[in-house]
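agent> Task received from the user: take the single chain below, predict its 3D structure, and emit structure tokens. No templates, no multimer pairing.
agent> Plan: (1) validate residues, (2) run structure prediction, (3) serialize to tokens, (4) report one or two observations.
agent> Step 1 OK, no nonstandard residues flagged.
tool_call: predict_structure(input=
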Amino acid sequence: MWKLLRKFTAGIFVLIGTGFVGFQPTNQDRSSTPICLVFAWAVLEGPKSDNSDVRLLTLGERIERQFSSGEAHSYQITLKVGQYLHTVIEHSAIEVGGTIYGPNEQKLLEFHCRQRGPTPVSLIANAEGNFRLDIRALEQGSTGRYKLKVESLRPGTAQDRSRVAAERAFAEGEELRAEWKEESSRRAIDKFEEALVLWKSIGQGPEEADTLRTIGDVWQSLNESQKALTYYNAALLICKKSNDRHTEGEITSSVGYVSVFLGENQHAHRLAATVRKGTSAAHHLIGLFRIDTEPE
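)
tool_result: status=success, residues=296
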């Protein structure tokens, strides 16, 4: 059962912020490309970047490159104190990670790409100078591609700082959750609740829904299915208000999973009928319940 739950919750993202460094989620279709799970970790050894071939990042430029296991690419951008940088990384066919370094080569954070959808990476500089982003292939014996784009470069705001604080709290929660221990999972929920308050304070509905959904996932991993349903349903309300049909379908799929887990198959059938045919959520529900959904 534990392995099943781990499979069920795969792809939930982890964010990390150090100082004024963080990762900012976006409201994009998360089914199209693999996402990045971002977490703090110590690397004893790994691929080395070729610092003699550092590429400059510029606003609006979209970079697409291929690399194999053991390879790393380096990018540099000059920031002023308080300047906000927002980039997005997408990858396919290979696991990807990265590191951000400050002006004095101090390591600010490391991250591991999510399994689904784009990985937004945001930073508010706490020093002036050149910042470096190293992107590396993590998977052994594989070749894949990634895309990198600088979407925003502007003075940071108070809202940006609150966003980074929320991301940091979320990251700490995901780090605890990754330990797969009951005590750590319960502490993770506290961190996610902290992030939830911050998302609400700055009106970030998509992030609020995502956090509610994540808390539901953790409660379900603890076999607290009724608590999981409470958070899933709260997330569904936000998705319906914002007309986010894709995320609504995914969370409905999660509710269906819990319903099957509880033996409420009739409710699961009703849920399946509400999900648009042809979506990833519909395929998930069909796989669980082995039924066909009705077209809209």
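agent> Step 4: summary for the user.
The domain at 13-160 is CATH 2.60.120.380 (Jelly Rolls).
agent> Done.
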